[in-house]
Amino acid sequence: MKISMLTTTHPYNDGRIFQKEARSLAKKHAVTIIAPGDIPDRFDEAGIKIITVKKPKSLLFHPLTILQIFLAARRIEADVYHCHEPDSFLVGLLLKYLMGKPVVYDVHEHWPDEIPFDIGFQYGTSFQKALTRILDRIELLLAKRADGVITVCESLSTRFGLRGGKWRKGIEPIIVANYSIANQDLPYNPEKSGRTIINVAANMHAFYGVLEGIVAVNHIRQKHPVLSLTLIGNIRVNLEDIISGDNEADWISTTGFLPYQQMYHEINKGSIGLVLIQPIHYHISIALPNKLFDYMLMGLPVVASDLPEIRRVVEDADCGILVNPTDIDAIAKALDYLLSNPGEARRMGENGRRAVIEKYNWGNMEKVLIDFYESFQK
After folding, report:
1. How many Å apart are CA 182 and CA 205, to the nearest integer?
2. 269 found inside a domain
3. Which of 312, 303, 307, 308 is nearest to 330 (CA)?
4. Helix-helix angle 342-358:328-340, to 10 degrees
5. Does residue 188 fall inside a structural domain?
6. Is 204 found in the same domain as 229?
7. What is the pLDDT of residues 295-343, one digit of tens each?
8. 244 shares its domain with 152
């Protein structure tokens, strides 16, 4: 089967799209990714065909990206269109009716809540709420035209599958979670005796708890003087504003964005992982971040936000401490507990690693995804 993956906002090498889904599907199918980018069209080592279109610098010209994705997709032969956001899904629906091919909608986010945030509307305003309601109804209506819906977590699956009774044609959304790839050749140090706290995000915005993590770590540095904090990812906040009162903030290090392997090498140096997502928007509060599973795979106990999707995993695996992510004292107390009780920290870290190897790993999701595509061949 020939599968065309369409995305208008993600890079071609996105962790979910390329590293996980495309590579898994390429084991049994011919996969093409059409995405914004500036590399020449090519095949990667897994046989995945990469086609890129030029992305305008201004968001105002985003419709040009959508048009280019449509034209590129129409030029190639496909049996299924697999779309990764609402605008690429619109392209997929148009191609469905033009080409007579099925379309899959892969829902990574709660888009009605995410889109107003992305284009700069202040959260909580009457306009933002009205726009979110409109987008919600449009997305659910269009999703009924899909031949299959994939979501990343239970909260999103419930939204698509249970509203208004049974799903069209009896099809229920499937969950393909962003679990870690556990069968990689990765370094693993079971002796987590260091004093390095890790915070990871591809793009580290304020809602990832950067401020809260820094202040909480600083609160306990007098008791744990060799403590350090490593921030992995592109920093999207002004660290100077956060640490302006600390003239010697050499206990904080930043790496910038790191490829998968290098990211795991850095995580492996740590002793505790932070997942301090701030529930300032609904789409953030139901997130199930990749980094949670990355920490677990590397055997780090976590201090994590007590939010529905995160809670479900952390409690099930017994791999860390849940906190109110806005309560700096609670975060500091949890960090102090793990640092002061290394045996308990190690037990939680081992629990997390075992849970990923046995349950929360991409291998299990790969089987779900491949089985889902088998249904199109019946």
Report:
1. 27
2. yes
3. 303
4. 100
5. no
6. yes
7. 999 999 999 999 999 999 999 999 999 999 999 999 999 999 999 999 9
8. no
Same domain, 259 and 367: no
Computed on alpha carbons and rounded to an integer, the radius of gyration of the chain in Å comes to 21
Answer yes or no: are the C-beta atoms of 318 and 330 closer than 8 Å. Answer: no
* Domain containing residue 349: 196-358
What is the C-alpha separation between 335 and 337, in angstroms, rounded? 5
Strand spans (E) along the chain: 2-6, 30-36, 42-43, 49-53, 80-83, 103-107, 148-151, 174-175, 196-204, 228-235, 252-256, 272-275, 302-305, 320-323
Best CA proximity match to 310, nearest among 287, 326, 329? 287
Is the domain of 305 the same as that of 157? no
Note the pTM of the prediction, 2 decimals.
Answer: 0.87
Please check whether residues 299 and 173 belong to one and the same domain.
Answer: no
Residue 297's identity, in one-letter code, is L
Give yes or no: residues 348 and 366 share one domain: no
- Residue 289 covered by a domain: yes
Tokens of 369: 């995804």
Asked if the structure places residue 373 within a domain, the reply is yes
pLDDT for position 170? 45
pLDDT digit string, tens, across residues 118-154: 787 888 788 888 999 999 999 988 998 999 999 999 8
CA distance 73 to 164: 33
Alpha carbon distance 210, 139 (integer Å): 32
Relative orientation angle of helices 62-75 and 86-99, to the nearest 10 degrees? 30
- Please state, in angstroms and rounded to a whole number, the distance separating the CA atoms of residues 85 and 11: 12
CA angle centred on 204, ends 122 and 151, rounded to 5°: 75
Q: Which pair of tokens denotes residue 356?
A: 């990923």
Q: Do 154 and 208 have their domain in common?
A: no
Structurally, the chain folds into a number of domains equal to 2
CATH number, residue 173? 3.40.50.2000
Domain co-membership, 97 together with 232: no
The two three-digit tokens of residue 87, written as one number: 């605008």
Give the span between the Cα atoms of 22 and 306, in whole angstroms: 32
